[in-house]
Write a structure and sequence with these properties.
13 helices, Glutaminase, alpha+beta, glutaminase activity, Beta-lactam/transpept-like, 12 strands, binds glutamine, EC 3.5.1.2, single chain, hydrolase, 5-stranded antiparallel β-sheet, globular, about 300 residues
Length: about 300
């Protein structure tokens, strides 16, 4: 596994010249596009890593998986009155559909959906961002995981589009709490800095029927795990979810920090990271690394 992961890393480096680092959040524009890391956590807890796998990066939309998981734990199926369950076919920060569909976002993994989910957590917890940070630390078994204040402030300064979505949903009665409080909480969670190994370990519950090994407990039920994986498979890569499903075929979630976490149910989690993104906001080199990973994990008998 170790030698294979290093070979994937070496081959995925060929994609490093393509794509562009996210610049709409200025703090992210400073990332080095040459970085590339990959880490695997198997369900027995063994870790494998290659390249820049220990470097913390901004998890951004990968936080939407943790936000959703916590909201489902608290609110259960009632959450789906606020947010839908289908791919949007639009970019992650599109406003057009939200107006047409009367403030109910298509799914929890586009920005509007994650903002509604965050609103549910603001109703449930006194300090939801600190709670999510604590959960991330315990899931990853790493007490040093921090919220990057520079990224948080940068996103706060440039919040106009996300604020527009939040106000539109508030106008439709789909947001209970103060817009600024919800946005600030959402940005804090997106600004968590974690490495590929942190994320591979933290998300392993999705491969292990909800069992969080680093926490030493069952985090969610097998049924909920299956449902979260289903939403990742259909909506985790925004409007490129179909392409990614065809090429990789694993439930996955990406973020504009350049990270992508993918789940091999029953077996392992894998996280790849490289900051340069394609037009959909998905990391070019990380996608390619995952494509090689999925293709070679169980080599097919026929090409
Ligand atoms: N796709 C992403 O990673 C987007 C998350 C980012 N925090 C935003 O709201 O724009």
């Amino acid at each position: 596994m170790q030698a294979w992961l290093e070979s994937i890393h070496a081959r995925a480096r060929s994609r490093l010249g393509s794509g562009r680092v996210a610049s709409y959040i200025p703090a992210l524009a400073e990332q080095d596009p040459e970085r590339l890391g990959i880490a695997v956590c198997t369900n027995d807890g063994t870790l494998y890593a290659a390249g820049d796998a220990e470097t913390p990066f901004s998890i951004q939309s990968i936080a939407k998986v943790l936000l959703l998981t916590l909201a489902l734990r608290v609110h259960g199926e009632a959450l789906w009155q606020r947010v839908g369950l289908n791919p949007s076919g639009m970019s992650f920060n599109s406003l057009a559909q939200l107006e047409a569909e009367r403030g109910k976002p298509r799914n929890p993994f586009i920005n509007a959906g994650a903002i509604v989910v965050t609103d549910r957590l603001v109703s449930a917890f006194a300090t939801p961002d600190k709670h999510l940070q604590d959960v991330a630390r315990r899931l990853a078994g790493n007490a040093r995981i921090l919220i990057d204040d520079e990224v948080l402030d940068s996103e706060w300064q440039h919040r106009s589009r996300n604020a527009a979505m939040a106000y539109l949903m508030k106008a439709f009665g789909n947001l209970d709490n103060d817009v600024d409080e919800v946005l600030r909480t959402y940005f804090s969670c997106c600004a968590l800095a974690m490495s590929c190994t942190d994320l591979a370990v933290a998300m392993n519950f999705l491969a292990a029927d909800g069992e969080a090994r680093a926490m030493g407990e069952r985090f969610v039920s097998p049924g909920l795990t299956r449902r979260i994986n289903a939403i990742m498979a259909t909506c985790g890569m925004y409007d490129a979810a179909g392409d990614f499903a065809y090429r990789v075929g694993l439930p996955a979630k990406s973020g504009v920090g350049g990270g992508i976490v993918a789940v091999v149910p029953g077996r392992m989690t894998v996280c790849a990271w490289s900051p340069a993104l394609d037009d959909n906001g998905n990391s070019v080199a990380a996608q390619y690394a995952l494509e090689l990973f999925a293709e070679e994990l169980d080599p097919p008998a026929h090409g």
